[in-house]
Write a structure and sequence with these properties.
Elements lengths: L8 H4 L13 H12 L4 H12 L5 H12 L4 H26 L3 E2 L2 E2 L1 H5 L1 H26 L3 H21 L7 H26 L5 H24 L6 H5 L1
Helix pairs in contact: 2-3, 2-5, 3-7, 4-5, 4-9, 5-7, 5-9, 7-8, 8-9, 9-10
Length: about 240
């Protein structure tokens, strides 16, 4: 029996996205997100579809899918979790562009530049809500209620890192900069795999993974900050 038949297609809009025993791809995640954007208020619809027309590398979705496959997580559950972490990442990007005054995102105008700050702020908020909706569905399907709390904690740390950056200046210590870099970037890199370890019952691995991605997050953010001076994407140096 197709695993998707055990869950309502109306609830998660997965019908037709996957075939039996086929590993989801980032294209499936992107399609799931676009399906869910159909529910956004008309005042945000244009901005939402504009943003996701160029979905980016979808690194976090890839991490969720591949780790879920290794852990033998149900394919529909892994798709929902991948969508949750990817949508949350995109919400943070929209808000970051407002905070940092960045006018370009993925080779196009940032949402706040094209549609205004109010629309960008509200769209980011709506995407956060969508992320937790997807996470709650993944939690229900996997019988892992703690999944939503894990995502919330990762987002809280990311938000705290962004807030710390507001008060940072070049006279402060290197350690402070590294703390900001780790908190801004590492949590949403760790979340995809942390959630999978929780669903698979191997949550003890989450601590080791968190340490690794804390260091990777620092490198990721440092590369991005350096390349921002050159007008290029430093994340490519880390992501390959």
């Amino acid at each position: 029996m197709d695993k998707l038949s055990t869950f309502s297609a109306d609830a998660v809009n997965l019908n037709g996205l996957l075939t039996h025993n086929k590993l989801p791809s980032v294209n499936h995640v992107h399609e799931l997100i676009l399906n869910r954007l159909e529910n956004v208020d008309a005042s945000l619809s244009e901005a939402a579809f504009f943003h996701f027309k160029t979905p980016g590398k979808m690194l976090r979705a890839k991490m969720a899918i591949q780790s879920a496959s290794l852990a033998e997580i149900d394919i529909s559950t892994s798709l929902l979790w991948a969508g949750a972490v990817e949508v949350l990442h995109n919400a943070s990007l929209i808000h970051d562009d407002i905070c940092d005054g960045d006018k370009q995102r993925r080779g196009r105008e940032s949402i706040w530049v094209k549609f205004g700050r109010d629309t960008a702020l509200t769209l980011g908020d709506w995407l956060i809500a969508l992320s937790f909706e997807l996470a709650s569905e993944a939690a229900e399907m996997s019988n892992t209620p703690r999944l939503v709390g894990v995502l919330a904690r990762h987002m809280a740390t990311t938000t705290a890192g962004q807030a710390m950056e507001f008060g940072w200046n070049s006279t402060q210590s290197w350690d402070v900069y590294l703390k900001i870099a780790a908190d801004k970037t590492a949590p949403l890199l760790t979340a995809p795999i942390h959630g999978v370890t929780l669903m698979s019952g191997t949550s003890g691995l989450g601590f080791a993974i968190s340490g690794y991605f804390c260091d990777l997050g620092k490198a990721y953010q440092i590369a991005n900050d350096i390349q921002n001076f050159k007008g290029t994407d430093g994340a490519k140096l880390i992501a390959g």
